[in-house]
Amino acid sequence: MASALDRIRVGSAPDSWGVWFPDDPQQVPWERFLDEVAEAGYSWIELGPYGYLPTDPARLTDEVTKRNLKVSAGTIFCGLHRGPSEWDSTWEQVSRVAALTQAMDAKHLVVIPSFWRDDKTAEILEPPELTTEQWRNLTTGMERLGREVKDRYGLDIVVHPHADTHIDTEEHVERFLDSTDSDAVNLCLDTGHYAYCGGDSVKLIETYGERIGYLHLKQVDPEILADVVKNEVPFGPAVARGVMCEPPAGVPELGPVLTAAQKLGVDLFAIVEQDMYPCEPDKPLPIAVRTRKFLRSCGA
Length: 300
Prior knowledge:
Layout: E1 8-12, H1 30-39, E2 44-46, H2 57-65, E3 70-78, H3 87-103, E4 108-113, H4 132-153, E5 156-159, H5 170-178, E6 186-190, H6 191-196, H7 201-207, E7 212-217, E8 219-220, H8 222-230, H9 235-240, E9 244-245, H10 254-262, E10 268-272, H11 284-297
Parallel strand pairs: 1-2, 1-10, 2-3, 3-4, 4-5, 5-6, 6-7, 7-10
Antiparallel strand pairs: 8-9
Helix pairs in contact: 3-4, 7-10
Organism: Streptomyces chartreusis NRRL 3882
Enzyme class: lyase
EC number: 4.2.1.44
């Protein structure tokens, strides 16, 4: 039996049930997600896309409490690299999600940069590399967001490196961390996305440990990923091919990642997020059960 990872709080998310949108006929109903995530043995969840779960705090509290669940974070997307003109539309979204997140007694807001490539059509929306000015917009904008979210809602923002966004590779992630203030902004390290973009999660935790504020656990199928990279497949179709796979079949190994995180000596959420959009409604639960069992075998 692996040693106990007593600083790691394991949960799951709507993403692991094939949920990417607030409303989509291909997705399981929210009631089924809540029932099944509890049945699979998780005690923490994320809100997922705003509007998928009930947005009335009293109702949502009732729904999660009766299933012995708690909320760890909300999620937003933003394009702050475009400059101050993006602030108002970003804040409109943030204020809704942060208010619900706060009402659920969660402490984190996961912030995902906007995509430079359409994740369905592969249309190139923006250049994949930012200019110096855009980098400055991104870093100063994220710091402002972090400070205002903390001041108004008491939440910590954790920025999520993500495939097909401008914070993806090791080089981009390190540049972002080196250019931002840890008092305002830290990282949601998604092990699958970081591997998808060529990064080493254990190395990042060991090098920038004080900046790791939150974890998403997922794995990548190396063979599918090699073809995705070779043929420049966008993220959405790559997921439909199964590029994000059930652990422990892929990379990185999650045991060493969790051990490295435990050594940081702080409490960390580790939320399972196996991208599976779209997927058959009966597929997620057995995977979730096996994944929870696997993580227990790692000590989490």
